[in-house]
Write a structure and sequence with these properties.
It is built from three helices and no strands. With 134 residues, it is mainly α. The longest helix has 31 residues, at 84-114.
């Protein structure tokens, strides 16, 4: 009898709460595809250019400068010259830099507009907004 009681009590103990009738609900996994928020780095500081005083020297104006220099009436300074071809290269380089900057700003504007639907329009700091030309 002790053996039967022991077997029955062990069977009840092993089955535990499973005899109560509560079932475990199956776990459902739902995948939601969302874009992660896009990082918008602030734009670099604006370029602060110093003014350049361009002076064109012709043979006549150079002669006048040298005469004034001998008299002590002209400031002593070095002159740098560019040939027409070198000036053309300088001009083309500056145009290439301008083109590159416009393309980079266009790419930045594209990514900011791409992520715009998830952001409120005033949530971006004022300094980091792209300036649009009128």
């Amino acid at each position: 009898m002790k053996k039967i009681t022991l077997i029955v009590s062990l069977a009840l103990l092993a089955s535990g709460c499973s005899m109560m009738g509560e079932r475990v609900k199956p776990v459902s996994v739902t995948t939601i595809a969302e874009r992660p928020p896009m990082y918008h780095p602030p734009l670099p500081m604006e370029v602060q250019l110093d003014p350049v005083d361009w002076e064109i020297l012709t043979p006549d104006s150079m002669k006048l400068y040298l005469d004034n220099l001998e008299k002590g009436e002209a400031p002593r300074r070095a002159f740098y010259t560019l040939s027409s071809k070198e000036y053309e290269h300088l001009s083309m380089d500056m145009a290439d830099i301008t083109r590159y900057i416009k393309e980079v700003l266009g790419i930045i504007k594209f990514y900011r507009d791409y992520d715009k639907e998830d952001e409120e329009p005033d949530s971006m700091p004022k300094k980091s907004r792209l300036r649009e030309k009128k």
